[in-house]
Specification:
Elements: H1 12-25, H2 28-39, E1 42-44, H3 45-52, H4 56-68, E2 73-80, E3 86-93, H5 96-122, E4 127-128, E5 135-136
Antiparallel strand pairs: 1-3, 2-3, 4-5
């Protein structure tokens, strides 16, 4: 049995997809944070603070937004210093498989909404009374005029 090839490098198309989606739907801070994660496979929170020159509260807000929308994943790791002290560090990374699924899901939602709006607009009223400005669908149009009395 042949072992499947493990990709160690992210294809450029996936990186471009992540950049374009974040630039299109999020703010500049989100795009900058994601750019750091695209260039580096896994980044410690302190390193991101140093690179982006954000304050911690702002960075966490940006990362939590991206994490809630499943663009970014986080792992907490406990590290022991040489003097025996333990510290917790948050490491952030992009799971591109989840990112692609989220983009597909959101595009499907947009497609459904467009189809629903289009369907609703074709079923909307197509006749309007010039006197009272009431609107009627083509199914109700035959009930508006009585040919025997000549009244509407």
């Amino acid at each position: 049995m042949i072992e499947p090839e493990i990709l160690t490098e992210v294809p450029a198309a996936l990186k471009r997809l992540a950049k374009q989606v974040v630039r299109g739907f999020y703010g500049v801070e989100h795009a900058l944070a994601l750019d750091v994660l695209i260039r580096n496979p896994c980044v410690r929170e302190e390193d991101m603070l140093e690179l982006l020159k954000f304050d911690r509260k702002q960075l966490r807000s940006v990362l939590n937004t991206l994490k809630a929308d499943k663009f970014v994943k986080c792992r907490m790791r406990v590290e022991t210093a040489p003097d025996g002290k333990t510290t917790r560090h948050n490491y952030y990374f992009i799971n591109y498989r989840v990112l692609v699924n989220v983009v597909k899901y959101k595009l499907d939602h947009i497609r459904r909404r467009i189809e629903t709006d289009e369907r609703d607009s074709t079923n909307r009223a197509s006749f309007r009374c010039p006197c009272c400005f009431s609107t009627f669908t083509d199914l109700e149009a035959n009930q508006l005029f009585d040919p025997m009395t000549g009244k509407h």
